[in-house]
Specification:
Layout (H helix, E strand, L loop, with lengths): L39 H25 L3 H4 L4 E6 L5 E4 L4 H23 L5 E4 L11 E10 L2 E11 L28 E5 L2 E2 L1 H8 L5 H29 L1 H25 L3 E10 L8 E11 L2 E6 L13 H16 L7 H4 L3 E5 L20 H18 L20 E5 L5 E5 L33 H7 L2 E8 L15 E7 L6 E5 L22 E5 L4 H6 L7 H4 L3 E2 L6 E5 L4 E5 L14 H10 L4 H8 L3 E2 L2 E2 L1 H16 L17 E4 L2 E3 L5 E3 L5 E3 L10 E6 L19 E7 L6 E8 L8 E3 L3
Parallel strand pairs: 10-11
Antiparallel strand pairs: 1-2, 1-5, 3-4, 3-6, 4-5, 6-7, 8-9, 8-30, 9-10, 12-13, 12-16, 14-15, 15-20, 16-19, 17-18, 17-20, 21-22, 23-24, 24-25, 25-26, 27-28, 28-29
């Protein structure tokens, strides 16, 4: 653990209500002179105009930036906030990019309103993760908007920069001991003053980059986006008046808060728990980190308790502001699909509890440059699982639940030289097209996206090949990568690349987790999605094979001799005839796999979504000529159900049913009037009031390495040999009620607990 530095506390943002901010009196905030509510038609027109303004700012980034990260993969976001920084509009791109801006604005108000002051025509640049940036590479521009000499609103825009200094190209340092090995954070500095860009600040910022021309254009895209939004807001104010627009902004926030609190009131009170096992925290690290998260819901508020998370370690840590933003990336789509995405309103009803110095609340000067693709991802996974478990207990909103989706990130950043000798750095975001988790009523979508980005996109292969000295051999769906279940989690993908049109070897930054321990948890008996991988084929004969039109379709077509590079191996050398293959993540499954519709299993087989071996081992399918034999499969499934309990064949259980006076804990488990838990399929008693229902289940433990949820033995990456896949089976009907990944001998996680009526 790194040693804390005196004085660093100044730069640690903390969650505050907007009314609790300490702002210098010299900065006057706009307050409407009349608080009469705006009529519904005017409200609708102005609120939609504000949303469109935020969207136009995002479009501006894409049109001005020359980086494929922006204009192809959309690794950015834009926001609008009220005078105190409460965000009332969030773009549909990387949601954590946007949500952190609220903390950035609030810190700026408290620490810059007096000196150097916040004035009309100013804009601030910031990428300090403790102040609130996601990580140093995600630089933000904050632009205050003034009306009648008073602070009226804020515009914010963030974008991932390819390189801002540090030990290695990309500024992502898997062997970083602390932040001083990475790009040094920049707290808010005034880069625009009186409407003019300050060249001294611009030069200071660009001087740290190995790609200053690219960084300069990216910076201008943020400045342009916030300028456009500022101009458009002034246009709306000119058309409708400052008071009217200010009242609409306040109504967006207040009405969204009220609707969100009402939504929470409709959901059951209770406590839900989830454990993420995160493998490896940096180069040479073979540890597994326990990340337990608890969610309490009481009436109209939510609390996420992260106080028991493992201590900060290595190069994968997240700051608390990033962790909050990642949790919000699950809260918004799962609980607010039909509400305005106004984080400033939603955060009024959400509390976060941290222990400073943990992997999800790292203290300065811990390494945090990799947090966005590492530990913070575990917060998204945990929040998705927790919220979905709560939704599973509410028939009204059960359809909104989602198993964990795209649970980790196979980092692929490739550098080298172009054919003219100039340096190149390519951040592939193919992995954003991961598998979406299964729903309670349908399969997850294959190669579709991730929770962090509602408008997720990936770059065209041809565009990437045009920009970089690379050749893609294939990019397609990865069979078996989605979590099995009655409804299958969506599959992830795979790709293979090699050097092209360059005389110099390349390097890839190997910097990922989720290759030893699956992190895409299933729900209600669904299995987790499969791990990811790097594979490397050395000295291939690809060019000779291409000449004879022999095109490989998978890494197994490329070579029989594949290396499995370390997941946190840092700089991996890629020779001119080498091929780097990656496989990325699917989503978790929902429900007992032995209850999957046989027509769906057969369809998956015919479409190549699953392999025949997977169909046999997991779904109990008996195949004749590659087609599911229905009668033989039903008999085989009965045998597999009985084997769960050590008995003979067990028939398929009855559909779930709820007896009078009972409540749902989820679709498999019912609570009687005094809170005792019963199997909803057969009525078997599982436990008394406040007891963990899992203690009444038959637990089937399988060493993780013996399951088909890993591509290679976990011992290739970690030292832990006691991780097991535990299945909780009803002793009465052999239905698979729930699953978890845990340590052998560990007590069952009491993952769902409703408050007494």
């Amino acid at each position: 653990m790194t040693t804390t530095i005196p004085g660093a506390d100044k730069f640690q943002s903390t969650a505050k209500l907007a009314t609790d901010l300490t702002i210098d009196a010299s900065l006057r905030l706009y307050t409407p002179s009349d608080d009469t509510p705006v009529d519904p038609v005017t409200y609708a027109v102005i609120s939609h105009k504000l949303t469109q303004i935020n969207d136009e700012a995002a479009t501006t980034i894409r049109k001005v930036s020359g980086s494929p990260v922006a204009n192809e993969a959309a690794d950015f976001n834009t926001v609008l906030g009220d005078p105190r920084g409460d965000l009332f509009a969030l773009g549909s791109y990387i949601s954590m990019h946007g949500t952190v801006v609220q903390r950035l604005i609030q810190w700026t108000l408290e620490h810059r309103s007096k000196n150097p002051g916040i004035r009309e025509g100013d804009a601030f640049l910031v990428n300090d993760p403790w102040v609130g940036a996601a990580h140093q590479s995600d630089t933000a521009i904050l632009r205050p908007i003034f009306v009648d000499g008073k602070l009226f609103a804020w515009v914010g825009a963030t974008l991932h920069f390819l390189d801002l200094g540090g030990r290695y190209p990309s500024s992502l340092i898997p062997d970083a001991e602390d932040v001083f090995s990475e790009s040094l954070p920049i707290p808010p500095v005034k880069i625009v003053e009186n409407g003019e860009i300050r060249e001294d600040i611009e030069d200071m910022f660009l001087r740290r980059s190995r790609l200053p021309l690219s960084a300069a254009l990216d910076l201008r895209s943020l400045l342009a986006a916030t300028t456009v939004a500022e101009q458009r807001i002034h246009d709306v104010v000119a058309a409708y008046g400052g008071d009217t627009v200010a009242l609409v902004i306040q109504q967006i926030l207040d009405s969204t808060e009220a609707r969100f609190r009402h939504r929470l009131q409709e959901l059951p009170n209770g406590t839900w728990r989830h454990m993420v096992l995160w493998d490896s925290a940096g180069v040479g690290d073979r540890s597994v980190y326990q990340i337990p998260v608890t969610m309490h819901k009481q009436d109209d508020s939510l609390v996420f308790d992260l106080r028991e998370v493992a201590e900060q370690s290595g190069a994968v840590n997240s700051t608390r502001t990033l962790t909050e933003a990642c949790i919000m990336s699950a809260v918004l789509p799962l609980l607010c699909p039909d509400l305005p995405w106004a984080p400033g309103a939603i955060l009024r009803a959400v509390e976060f509890r941290f222990t400073q110095g943990t992997i999800l609340a790292a203290e300065f000067p811990a390494s945090v440059g990799g947090g966005t693709t590492q530990a913070a991802w575990s917060a998204v996974n945990a929040a998705t699982a927790l919220i979905s478990k709560m939704l599973a207990a509410c028939p009204q909103y059960k359809a909104n639940l989602l198993a964990v989706s795209t649970p980790a990130w196979i980092f692929q950043l490739i550098g080298g030289l172009n054919k003219d000798g100039s340096p190149t750095l390519a951040l592939s975001l193919d992995q954003a097209a991961g598998g979406i988790g299964a729903r309670a009523w349908a399969d997850g979508d294959d190669v579709a996206g991730m929770m962090l980005s509602p408008s997720c996109e990936i770059a065209n292969v041809e565009t990437q090949e045009w920009h970089e000295p690379l050749l893609w051999l294939y990019r397609d769906e990865l069979p078996d990568s989605g979590g099995p279940g009655r409804f299958r989690g969506g599959n992830g993908g795979r790709s293979a690349i090699m050097a092209y049109d360059t005389a110099a070897p390349l390097f890839n930054m190997c910097y990922t987790s989720g290759v030893a321990v699956p992190s895409g948890a299933g729900l209600c008996g669904g299995w987790p999605s499969k791990t990811g991988y790097y594979k490397l084929a050395r000295d291939t004969d690809i060019w000779q094979r291409y000449a004879s039109s022999d095109i490989p379709r998978s890494e197994h077509d490329i070579s029989d001799d594949l290396e499995w590079p370390p997941s946190q191996g840092g700089m991996l050398h890629i020779g001119l005839d080498d091929v780097l293959a990656i496989g990325w993540f699917g989503g978790g499954g929902f429900g007992d796999p032995l209850e999957r519709d046989l027509g769906a299993v057969d369809s998956d087989l015919q479409e190549g979504a699953i392999t025949e071996q997977h169909a046999r081992d997991v779904y109990g399918a008996v195949l004749t000529g590659g087609v599911v034999d229905v009668d033989a499969t039903e008999a085989r499934r009965a045998e597999l159900r009985g084997a769960r309990l050590g008995f003979g064949p067990k028939p398929a259980p009855a559909p779930p049913r709820l007896q009078a006076g009972h409540r749902w804990l989820d679709e498999n488990i019912a609570l009687d009037p005094v809170g005792a838990s019963d199997c909803a399929r057969c009525g078997h008693h599982l436990g008394g009031p406040e007891e963990n229902y899992k203690l009444g289940c038959h637990a089937v433990e399988t060493p993780l390495g013996d399951t088909d949820r890993v591509w290679i033995s976990p011992s290739n990456y970690i030292d832990a040999t006691d991780i097991v896949f535990r299945q909780y089976v009803c002793p009465g009907c052999a239905t698979l009620l729930e699953t978890e990944l845990t340590l052998a001998g560990a007590a069952p996680i009491h993952d769902k607990e409703l408050a007494p009526c």
